[in-house]
Design a protein that fits this description.
Layout lengths: L40 E7 L11 H6 L1 H4 L2 E9 L5 E2 L9 H6 L21 H12 L4 E8 L6 H4 L3 H16 L3 E4 L2 E3 L9 E6 L16 H23 L4 E6 L3 H7 L2 H5 L4 E4 L26 H10 L7 E6 L1 E6 L14 E2 L8 E3 H10 L3 E5 L4 E5 L4 E4 L2 H14 L3 E5 L9 H11 L1
Parallel strand pairs: 1-2, 1-17, 2-4, 4-7, 7-8, 8-9, 9-10, 10-17
Antiparallel strand pairs: 2-3, 5-6, 11-12, 11-13, 11-16, 14-15, 15-16
Helix pairs in contact: 6-7, 12-13
Keywords: Carbohydrate metabolism, Chitin degradation, Glycosidase, Hydrolase, Polysaccharide degradation, Signal
InterPro entries: Chitinase_II/V-like_cat (IPR011583), Chitinase_insertion_sf (IPR029070), GH (IPR017853), Glyco_hydro18_cat (IPR001223), Glyco_hydro_18_chit_AS (IPR001579), Glycosyl_Hydrlase_18 (IPR050314), TAT_signal (IPR006311)
Organism: Streptomyces kunmingensis
Amino acid sequence: MRPRLRRRLLTRAAVAVSSLSLLGAFAPAASAHGGGHDTPRRVGYFTQWGVYGRDFQVQDLKKSGAAARLTHLNYAFGNASPDGKCLMGNVPGESDPWADYQRPLDAENSVDGVADTDTQALAGNFNQLRELKAENPRLKAMISLGGWSWSTHFSDAARTPASRKAFVASCVDLYIKGNLPEDGARGGRGAAAGVFDGIDIDWEWPGSEGDTDTVYRPEDKRNFTALVAEFRKQLDAYGRTKHKHYELSAFVPTAPAKIDAGFEVRKIMKDFDFVNLQGYDFHVSGEKTTAQQSALYARDDFSVDGTVDAWLHRGAPARKLVVGMPFYGQGWTGVTGGGDGLGQPAAAPAPAQWADGYADYKELKAWADSGTYELYRDRRGGHAWLFDGTTLWTYDDPQVLRLKSAYVRAKGLGGAMFWSLDGDTPDGELVRTVDRALSH
């Protein structure tokens, strides 16, 4: 997830897709298999924990206009238990049913403007997603399973035919059929039925190192293929009873070594409706040298274009590749060496509101607008950064996102994905920017 290579500037010509005037020259790609949406897709991650400190509620997607512009909303995250089942329960740090479906919202914070009651079976974020979808019928909600911190037990769950079958069945039962654990009036059989339209697999990473406690094995590669096939099989079987296609997607890495260690690309792409490519964290604030985290092009370094090429060359259809775009920046402080600050030694991750080294776009925009930092661009590389002589932040602003959206259209790719929606401005500036760029 966090590759470490020295930065190099792009030297090859990339001018053809850097001009927004080219947007109209490319027709949208054909519809992806079974998905029901014409590409390009607009996929946004909603974080379960964002409803607390950030106070970012599902209703905020209505207020900003983002809900009307998205095709998919990925709810992050669902977890897998040590016994290989989709986990939902009062297990601190491993599950949060209070945020998911138990927490009552008042009228002011509800999508439909009606307060939750003590007797309804579904409350919390899941009920708000249901209300949001009712107002935006084209919007699909996907449950994202895993993530960096909750991929711990995926290798175990995928290890045998029996464990795969049990794991997938538990996830379909919990999230697609909506059979939630009962807790007082909340939950019960079918309580969340209809909330989710599919499953997004965020196993980080099959066959290679992820978080410190995440298990991985060489056989994960073939087991991941089998797991994907089992998800497709069970989703299709249940879908036939509902006359509905349930979508299946995944978050997949940029590093060729991680792709080759964990993914039989041609095989899995037959079962996926689409995959979301890692388009960020090419470099992170824990490194000792400042660098780009999400460049469109970069020579001898990770980049969006390099990621797309890696997947295309391994047999992935362009129309199923969705490009990840960050709604945050990576930052360093104690930067020395002068110049524009990029590629220079740094002492530590830069302070920010929620976590050192990680700042939401709206926070970065405020700093840029205040004149505290100078804005720099690598116009050929397709990335931007802020630098004040000591602290540097690399991030995507609207100009960068327009360039990347032009690239998506030029390559006939499947769309754009955003991590994460709570980093955008209250008026949804970044979602609006990408939506407009992909629509023309």
